[in-house]
Amino acid sequence: MKLKFTKMHGAGNDFVVIDGVNQHIDFTPAQWKLLGDRRFGVGADQILLVEKPTEAGCDFRYRIFNADGGEVEQCGNGSRAFVKFVSEKGLTDQRSITVQTKAGVIAPRLEADGSITVDMGAPILEPGRVPFDAEGLQGEPQGRDTLWPLVLELGGARESVLISAVSMGNPHAVQVVDDVDAAPVELTGPLIEHHVRFPNRVNAGFMQIIDRQHVKLRVFERGVGETLACGTGACAAAVAGIRRGLLDSPVRIDARGGQLSISWDGEGQPVWLTGPAVTVFEGEIEI
């Protein structure tokens, strides 16, 4: 079939976005992977599918497929691209919508200045629900958080890193580093992603604190690799920093692809993600 798509990005985290409201889309993992391939397909960190909701009270259903073809629970930067897409395509005339995801309902809102704010829901902080297997580990308390040691095998040597385990509908392991530009993201990112204590794999975040409301962040995303920005990773990093007593809301997150803003009022409260969404081009591919 010939498939029409829109290429978009949020702070450099790039997407192929597909209208599944006006056409039926039922691709195999191999076809999603082909779409995400930067040499043989369109190329993207994630493919976003807009569908009619299956839950009452929602305006749309939002499905996310990583570049490896696997479907995942959540994508914060993608949610901003999602609301811009449905607005530009005339699928809604509302500036604020409710969207069904695998991780629950989110509420993106198109702001007057063109930026997009998303209610990402409350973070999940209990290790077993992240999910993270903390059995047998001795956690290290810091502020209201517990830091967990992860042992990484590095070419015969063993290294332990302290992480905060946070879920924003998808799992994150956040560590604080002195210099994010020098952090071994490509070396240790895959080891953390596939660590046995994360049964569903995990997104690995590397956060450098600039001041109490400003951090620099790199994220090695599950099923993708390092991306220029990660919206849920930014949320998880801000939550971890606030719980550790190192940050105050709102937090400016400098990713390699742009800037995001995160607000959070504490346990049980939703995390608010604000940032840009950009349409790059429209296209068509035989798939």
Question: How would you characterize the overall build of this protein?
Answer:
This protein has helices spanning 29-36, 76-88, 185-193, 231-244; strands at 2-10, 13-19, 46-51, 60-66, 71-72, 99-101, 104-110, 116-119, 140-142, 145-154, 157-167, 171-176, 203-211, 214-221, 225-227, 251-255, 258-264, 271-275, 278-286. With 287 residues, the protein is of the alpha+beta class. It has 2 domains: 2-119 and 276-286, Diaminopimelate Epimerase, Chain A, domain 1 (Roll), CATH 3.10.310.10; 127-269, Roll (Diaminopimelate Epimerase, Chain A, domain 1). It has a 19-stranded mixed β-sheet that branches. Catalyzes the stereoinversion of LL-2,6-diaminopimelate (L,L-DAP) to meso-diaminopimelate (meso-DAP), a precursor of L-lysine and an essential component of the bacterial peptidoglycan. This is Diaminopimelate epimerase. Homodimer.
Features:
Diaminopimelate Epimerase, Chain A, domain 1; isomerase; 19-stranded mixed β-sheet; globular; single chain; 2 domains
User: Could you give the distance between the termini?
Assistant: 6 Å
How many E-type strands?
A: 19
Q: In CATH's first tier, which class of the largest domain applies?
A: Alpha Beta
DSSP summary: helix tally? 4
Biggest β-sheet description = 19 strands, mixed
Helix content: 10-25%
Q: Do you know the CATH topology of the largest domain?
A: Diaminopimelate Epimerase, Chain A, domain 1
Following the backbone from N to C, one meets helices and strands in this order, namely EEHEEEHEEEEEEEHEEEHEEEE
- What is the CATH superfamily label of the largest domain? Diaminopimelate Epimerase, Chain A, domain 1
Beta fraction of the residues? 35-45%
Detail the poorly predicted runs.
none
The CATH architecture of the largest domain comes to: Roll
Mean pLDDT: 97
Number of separate structural domains: 2
Question: Structural class of the helix and strand makeup?
Answer: alpha+beta
Overall geometry: globular
Output the radius of gyration.
18 Å
Organism: Duganella aquatilis
InterPro entries: DAP_epimerase_AS, DAP_epimerase_DapF
Family: Belongs to the diaminopimelate epimerase family.
Pathway: Amino-acid biosynthesis; L-lysine biosynthesis via DAP pathway; DL-2,6-diaminopimelate from LL-2,6-diaminopimelate: step 1/1
